[in-house]
Automatic annotation (TrEMBL):
The keyword Oxidoreductase applies. It comes from Accumulibacter regalis. Keywords: ATP-binding, Chaperone, Nucleotide-binding, Oxidoreductase. It is an enzyme of class 1 (oxidoreductase). One of its GO terms (molecular function) is ATP-dependent protein folding chaperone. Its EC number is 1.3.1.74. Belongs to the heat shock protein 70 family. This is 2-alkenal reductase.
Length: 588
């Protein structure tokens, strides 16, 4: 048996720990169903140490007893204050590493003494040394420090396919990095890196928040910006809408009882189309593309030298990001490994190799083919009714559901034919038609009546295609069984082989919904109520110094938590989260 070395992604906002067992890469859950540990530490009222979610929750109440984003300070000879005591950045990072070590030990049932830890490619020697020291303080021998893009390349197995050059594009919540890497016989070399430490998905949220604020001003003549609670809730609504827009052509920014004006409740409900949203975030995406070119010229390369693009970071799920990269670099970016977890997975792969094991493969269920429909669009300068519109791209992890908006072409058009194809050719007629249906009885409307078509592909290769008239909800759909294996000759065998392998392995993969997310044990429920009591107490303490409006929000938040103390855990947790957010926001 080889010794266990864990792989750790020690991130600015979130951290993860992964291992390789039985030839599989596992990202270890930090709580039931959760594999991401917020990179925050704090000291609780009773002097005990808080790490992760608990520290995040108390940050709002006690910033003086909490520390976040310590990664930005690594390598500085500075003291960070927490609960009146000075700590070095290494010591704070060590607390996160120690928690991850404990989580790994509890999961494996064996002591863990060694780790591979990832750092950004641009980290200096001092920053790397500080990271190594943090590991040692945490009781971990850091057997190797590797670059985050290197880890991503390992997770994508890029280095197994001969000499190649890859662009690793990493867009997280608050940071952006792009690296050009050279992959050759299992060695990954970072040739150049560029980025912006203050650009990410949070900026996309901010655009939607501004959009909602403008809407409320125009619709109700109110400015909610000074109201912390409403702003905290809007923040959540904006992020949720953003995530919806990654899969749907429209999203509704909605929050009931967001605000009260003259005793009348104001509900927020405003629809936004993906097109409008993309226009808002386009300047940010353009900035990242400029950085791509800076990194390329830093490496002395051109676009033509790049063999593949690897996506890292949650915000790379944004379709505009993927589309712009594809058109700028002329290839579909690879997105099949979970972008939030792939750095930790790569660290674990490196760790397994150092431990003397075989380099394992990250297994994901993906569709080997692209599915789409046809529409009337410009094709080689002319309008052509069979322009191919791909909805589910090949190598997308399954199950998956993607929607796209279309419009009627003629005034009074009462029906639309929906063709379903498998293939890659921009001319739909050159692809394989695997289904077709007609949606009839559309309302009598001018051209431009919107329809939403949704493709949902499940693990068994069953493709459901639905088309819905947006304004009436009229719906028609078909189900295509065995969509994935509807091929001929070699391709059929190849696809079947690949899918069989994926299904064989899927059962053992961790993190599948339902595996460990059952009902919370009694202890958790009791602990939740103890935490609720503490949260109420802290909020009540803050009341004394809060302004009138904030005080009103606080009282409402406290009452909502109290109301749920005797209710189900989930409702209590929702009320607690809202109150914790408010406290967090008041602090900011
Ligand atoms: P990371 O720092 O890699 O965990 O990335 C977090 C960022 O990714 C946050 O801004 C999230 O809101 C964003 N994000 C997560 N899922 C999606 C999604 N499906 N579409 C767009 N952004 C997402």
């Amino acid at each position: 048996m080889t010794e266990i070395i864990v792989g750790i992604d020690l991130g600015t906002t979130n951290s993860e720990v992964a291992i390789v067992r039985g030839g599989r890469v596992e990202v270890i859950p930090v709580a039931p169903g959760v594999r991401i540990l917020p990179s925050l530490v704090g000291v609780a009222d009773d002097g005990s140490l808080l790490v992760g979610e608990a520290a995040r929750n108390q940050y709002a109440l006690h910033p003086e007893r909490s520390v976040r984003s310590i990664k930005r300070r690594m390598g500085e000879y500075t003291a960070v204050q927490m609960a009146g005591k000075d700590y070095s950045p290494q010591e704070i990072s060590a607390m996160i590493l120690r928690r991850l070590r404990d989580i790994a030990e509890a999961h494996i049932g064996e002591p863990v003494g060694k780790a591979v830890i990832t750092v950004p490619a641009y980290f200096s020697d001092a920053q790397r040394q500080a990271t190594r020291e943090a590991g040692e303080i945490a009781g971990l021998e850091v057997v190797r420090i590797i670059n985050e893009p290197t880890a991503a390349a390992l997770a994508y197995e890029s280095c197994h396919s001969g000499a190649r050059k890859a662009l690793v594009y990493d867009l997280g919540g608050g940071t952006f990095d792009v690296s050009v890497v050279n992959l050759e016989s299992d060695v990954v070399e970072v040739l150049a890196s560029h980025g912006n430490n203050h650009l990410g998905g949070d900026d996309f949220d901010q655009k939607l928040i501004t959009f909602a604020i403008d809407h409320l001003k125009a619709q109700h003549d109110i400015d909610i910006r000074p109201h912390a609670q409403a702003m905290a809730r809007l923040q959540h609504a904006a992020e949720a809408a953003k995530i919806t827009l990654s899969d749907e052509p429209y999203a509704t920014l909605a929050e009931e009882y967001l605000f009260e004006k003259d005793g009348v409740p104001i509900h927020l409900s405003v629809e936004i189309s993906r097109d409008d949203y993309e226009e808002m975030i386009e300047p940010y995406v353009a900035e990242t593309l400029e950085a791509v070119h800076v990194a390329l010229s830093g490496a002395g390369l051109t676009v033509a030298d790049i063999n593949e693009i690897l996506l890292v970071g949650g915000a790379t799920r944004t379709p505009l990001v993927q589309r712009r990269l594809e058109s700028e670099l002329g290839m579909q970016p690879r997105a099949e490994v979970d972008p939030d977890l792939c750095v930790a997975m790569g660290a674990a792969i490196q760790a397994a190799v150092i431990a003397g094991g075989q380099a394992p493969t990250v297994l994901v269920d993906v569709t080997p083919y692209t599915f789409g429909t046809s529409a009337l669009e410009y094709f080689n300068g002319d309008m052509y009714p069979y322009c191919y519109v791909p909805l589910i791209r090949k190598n997308t992890p399954i199950p998956v559901s993607k929607s796209e908006g279309f419009c009627t072409v003629f005034d009074g058009q009462r029906q639309v034919d929906i063709n379903v194809y498998q293939g890659e050719d921009p001319d739909a007629l050159n692809n394989i038609q695997i289904g077709r249906f007609t949606i009839e009885g559309l309302r009598d409307a001018p051209a431009g009546n919107p329809l939403i078509t949704t493709f949902s592909l499940d693990h068994n290769g069953i493709l459901q295609v639905t088309s819905r008239e947006k304004n009436t909800g009229l719906v028609h759909s078909i189900t295509i069984d065995n969509a994935i294996s509807r091929f001929t000759g070699d391709k059929l065998g190849e696809a079947r082989h690949r899918i069989d392998a994926l299904f064989r392995d899927q059962d053992g993969e961790e993190g599948r919904p339902g595996a460990s997310v059952g009902a919370a044990p009694i202890d958790d429920s009791r602990r939740l109520r103890v935490e609720a009591g503490a949260l109420i107490e802290k909020a009540e303490r803050l009341l004394a110094s809060a302004g009138t409006e904030d005080a009103e929000d606080l009282v409402n938040g406290i009452e909502a938590v109290k109301d749920q103390l005797g209710g189900p855990d989930a409702s209590l947790k929702t009320a607690m989260d809202a109150l914790a957010d408010l406290l967090y926001y008041l602090d900011a």
